[in-house]
Write a structure and sequence with these properties.
Elements: E1 9-14, E2 17-21, H1 24-34, E3 39-45, E4 63-70, E5 75-82, E6 91-96, E7 108-110, E8 115-116, E9 123-124, H2 125-138, E10 146-149
Antiparallel strand pairs: 1-2, 1-3, 3-4, 4-5, 5-6, 5-9, 6-10, 7-8
Length: 153
C-alpha cells in the first residue's frame, strides 16, 4: 500500500459544516471564521476529518478544541478534550480566565442541549484567537491560556 504525505489538515466543524485548511493562509482564514461562528470544533490531523454523512466516515482524531463565541460581545470559551488511551483518565479542560467576574457571559457549551461553560471560561476574543491559532499550529493543548478542569459532556 502506498502512503501519500498530506501534511497537517485543520478541520473546522462550524455548526454541521466541515471546513478544511492546509496552508497558513487557509488556517488564518478558518480561525477568523471560527471567531465569527457561535459554535465550532477544531481538529488537527494528518488527514481531513469525515462526517458520518461521508461514505468512509465518521473519522476523527482523539483530540479536539470546542469553541463557543459571542462575537458581538467580544467573548469566547474553549474546551480541550483528549481521549487518547495514554492520556491520564482522558482529558477535558476548559479555558480559565483568572480575572472573571459575575458579569461574564454564560456561553453555551453544546448547541443541542442546555450545557454552559462556567463563567470563568470566558476569554476576550483576542486570547481565544491566540489559543486557537496555537492549537492549529501544534495540535496540542494551547499553553498561551490557562485551563481549569472541565467535564466530559
Amino acid at each position: 500500500m502506498t502512503t501519500i504525505e498530506t501534511g497537517t489538515v485543520i478541520t473546522g466543524v462550524l455548526g454541521h459544516e466541515f471546513h478544511y485548511a492546509r496552508t497558513p493562509e487557509e488556517t488564518a482564514d478558518l480561525v477568523e471564521t471560527v471567531l465569527n461562528t457561535r459554535y465550532s470544533q477544531i481538529y488537527v490531523w494528518d488527514r481531513p476529518c469525515l462526517s458520518f454523512r461521508d461514505e468512509n466516515g465518521p473519522s476523527f482524531p482523539h483530540a479536539r478544541v470546542r469553541i463557543t463565541v459571542a462575537p458581538d460581545d467580544g467573548w469566547g470559551a474553549l474546551n480541550h478534550m483528549d481521549a487518547r488511551p495514554e492520556a491520564v483518565n482522558g482529558e477535558a479542560v476548559d479555558s480559565y480566565n483568572p480575572h472573571a467576574t459575575e458579569e461574564m457571559p454564560a456561553l453555551l457549551f453544546d448547541p443541542e442541549g442546555q450545557l454552559f461553560f462556567p463563567a470563568s471560561a470566558s476569554l476576550p476574543l483576542d486570547q481565544a484567537r491566540q489559543a486557537i491559532t496555537e492549537y492549529c499550529r501544534t495540535g496540542q493543548r494551547p499553553s498561551c491560556v490557562q485551563w481549569q478542569p472541565g467535564q466530559w459532556y
